Amino acid sequence: MTTTSTTTAPPSRPDRAKAGKPRKSDRARAEARLGWLLAGPAFVVMLAVTAYPILQAVYESLFRNRLTAPGDRAFIGLGNYGVILTDSLFWKSLAVTTGIMVITVVIEVVLGFALALVMHRAVKRLRGLLRTAILVPYGIITVVSAFAWFYAFSIDSGYVNSWFSWLPGIDQDLNWFAHMGTSLFVIIASEVWKTTPFISLLLLAGLAQVPGDLEEAAQVDGATSWQRMKRVVLPNMKAAIMVAVLFRALDAFRIFDNVFIMTNGANNTEVLSLLAYRTSIGRLEIGLGSAISVLLFVCVIIICFIAIKVFKVDLAGARGER
């Protein structure tokens, strides 16, 4: 008795690659196409508006160009970058800028998430009122907000010292803008007060995307509030948290108004944007100022790269499409 065995040939390598590679659904492709159609015109306009200043700054950074000595203009390549990167003032400004960015983003994400939870779980009749009240600080112009905080903490016209003199370390003669620590405290507090509503709205949108049935299932299984928050809510909000952190980090890294109005860089509070302004406008060093602006832009790109790598958000998977 003879037996015959049939063997199935293994799929070819192209078939294997095709089988292992996830394919986008028709809905995902349609959404991507619609997204490009809607965002394409705005992207082209923004690129046209921002590309020229960026390229002009890169071009000017390669020249020794001082407006007080127009005849001394000369091409020096990366010489301006060498001067800046070997100057301790640049690294101090970078450290102050990074510190302000990290502290403000951390505080704002925590407070913004708390406000988002309050708005998300509030009674429907009160949601509109809460959102309007929370948005009031964000609607104030940054310069106006900075002046308000400056006068509130001023030793001459401020009311903070008299109101909070009962706290240890605060008295009528405390000059908040005479020391680095207290100056940065006021600057960071003003930033947190104004931009936390922006973070709360972004996180509120993320909370709205968390499936309610998953929370109910976790509650039925006996999960505590913290476990539901850690295992259900936060993982489903990862994309919203990344967007909030990224947008706010980029905005905080370019801080200028508050520092310029409150301290003008005194007491070691100078940030990169203010350093670029003082170099270009104050000293009329267009080449050095342009180089600082380019380095600031490079730092922003690095922040974007780090944020995307840290969060590792799969936007296609977040909406259930491949």
UniProtKB/TrEMBL annotation:
* Protein's name in the database: Sugar ABC transporter permease
* GO biological process terms on file: transmembrane transport
Q: Where is this region: Disordered?
A: 1-26
Its lineage reads: Bacteria, Bacillati, Actinomycetota, Actinomycetes, Micrococcales
Which keywords are on file for this protein?
Cell membrane, Membrane, Transmembrane, Transmembrane helix, Transport
- All copies of the ABC transmembrane type-1 domain together span 94-307
Q: What is its main location?
A: membrane
The cellular location(s) given in this protein's UniProt record come to: Cell membrane
Q: Which GO terms describe its cellular component?
A: plasma membrane
Family affiliation: Belongs to the binding-protein-dependent transport system permease family.
Q: How does it sit in the membrane?
A: Multi-pass membrane protein
Say which domain of life the source belongs to.
Bacteria
Q: What organism does this protein naturally occur in?
A: Cellulomonas denverensis
Transmembrane residue ranges = 34-55, 94-117, 129-154, 174-193, 286-308
* Basic and acidic residues compositional bias, start-end: 13-26
